[in-house]
């Protein structure tokens, strides 16, 4: 049966989409206006599209450096989370025993702990060992990211027959080789999901970096945004240009990977 | 692979180490510290339940707990109603389905801190100028009162999360057997009847999943709270996560803040366990 087209529904959908995008439109058009123009009118497009706000915001945010910091921390953390969680989930799924069950449930149960409950001791302990820096931050992301990632990998691994492992072992491969050459490539769809969920979280995280990163010059985008706002609360024209700059990398990422992103999020949530 | 093999432990070592040092040790230390006068440097003395007794008389903490609860309940209902409506819309007879999904989902990719700043501009500046044009006094001074701050947070959160919840409902709606819908249509069921008796029972499991996600997200909210209202005016829109942060790092009351954090954990855990229980019960019924 072919779906009939419902024009009323279509119009309603498009109106809602416009409503949904309105905040981005308002941010964008006002980011080109002068302070005075924003005061006069916030709805219309700017009289002339001047890039002055952007040039100022770009400098004030030290944008290239900040973008690099965010990329560095996100990429390294996500790659390490993928490698270590996949390995751990493999061990837990292949060595079935009471111990594995207990460990698996410990990892999963850790998801229930809200960050605020461990935040204060975490920061003081890591502070004592001089680990309040980017390295420490990445290590923390591995600890916090492992739970969900292991959970997702574990589910996928249980569906891969062990006979595959055995066949490779008979051919003379060791555990390490079996995992990386045979199993890990099969896990690719779930790796995409794990990567996307962790990228969204780490890229946007504010609280943890705000507690861990103290050195000027190593701030991530959300962190820099916060300081930037403190200084420019009354200067919306600069603030809005800064916000637009901060969003551009995400929109580019979304543009190229929207199918994987939406699929990854729905797989991650439904499982 | 067996658990006594060296390779088993080597495969597990990195995450075990990270989880232990980042989650388990701080959690245990935190519980211990909450019974002391810990100030971040010295453990101080053991005071038993004193911190816990104090926090039940701490009006600011109780207010934040109440505000968070109100906010969560209202948001969970709104987000689920909007999310399910959007899901029904984009899985219905529309051609722009893919474009609509992409649009509604977009806010979820951007950090809560940034979204909060964008909406701060809208509530304060855009609302004021629109209010002036159409002559509505009530649009002035948004976020400057407790009520407008509350609704500001609800609007921000609903706009952000509805698309996420939509994606979950879509997954269930698309997994629904098409014959059932077609059969009900042929039998002459109205759209309301189709929704009430066919679609709704089939997406009910999605509701448990999405309710858990919305509830735990709204209850633990921090970034949006910080950037939209900053807890103001006069701490009246301060949620629990922010209250704990301020107690610890602005008042330097570490042990006391940690006691609040433990209570926070217990509340979140109860929400999660009730959720698992309800989920299990539903599975039996199905």
UniProtKB/TrEMBL annotation, chain A:
SUPFAM superfamilies cross-referenced by the UniProt entry: MetI-like
Subcellular localization, as worded in the UniProt entry: Cell membrane
Q: GO CC: one term? A: plasma membrane
Which family is it part of? Belongs to the binding-protein-dependent transport system permease family.
Does this UniProt record's set of keywords contain Transport? yes
Report the coiled-coil segments.
none
- In this protein, which residues make up the domain named ABC transmembrane type-1? 67-257
Give the PANTHER family listed for this entry: ABC TRANSPORTER PERMEASE PROTEIN MG189-RELATED-RELATED (PTHR43744), LACTOSE TRANSPORT SYSTEM PERMEASE PROTEIN LACG (PTHR43744:SF3)
Entry annotated with the keyword Membrane: yes
Name its GO BP terms in alphabetical order: transmembrane transport
Gene3D superfamilies on file? MetI-like
Q: Keywords of this protein's UniProt record, alphabetized?
A: Cell membrane, Membrane, Transmembrane, Transmembrane helix, Transport
Source species, domain of life = Bacteria
Q: Which organism is it from?
A: Planococcus halocryophilus
Q: Which InterPro entries match?
A: MetI-like, MetI-like_sf
Q: Which residues span the membrane?
A: 12-32, 67-90, 102-126, 138-157, 178-203, 236-257
This chain belongs to the protein called: Sugar ABC transporter permease
UniProtKB/TrEMBL annotation, chain B:
Record's keyword terms, sorted: Cell membrane, Membrane, Transmembrane, Transmembrane helix, Transport
Name of the featured protein: ABC transporter permease
Record GO biological process: transmembrane transport
Q: Which family does it belong to?
A: Belongs to the binding-protein-dependent transport system permease family.
Tell me which InterPro entries the record gives. Answer: ABC_transporter_permease (IPR051393), MetI-like (IPR000515), MetI-like_sf (IPR035906)
TM ranges are 7-33, 71-92, 104-128, 148-173, 194-215, 255-278
Instruction: Kindly list any coiled-coil regions of this protein.
Output: none
- Enumerate the subcellular locations listed in this protein's record, separating them with semicolons: Cell membrane
Query: One Pfam match, by short name?
Result: BPD_transp_1
Q: Work out whether the entry's keyword set contains Thylakoid.
A: no
CDD domains tied to this protein: TM_PBP2
What is the superkingdom listed in this entry's lineage? Bacteria
Topology of the protein relative to the lipid bilayer:
Multi-pass membrane protein
GO cellular component terms attached to this protein's record: plasma membrane
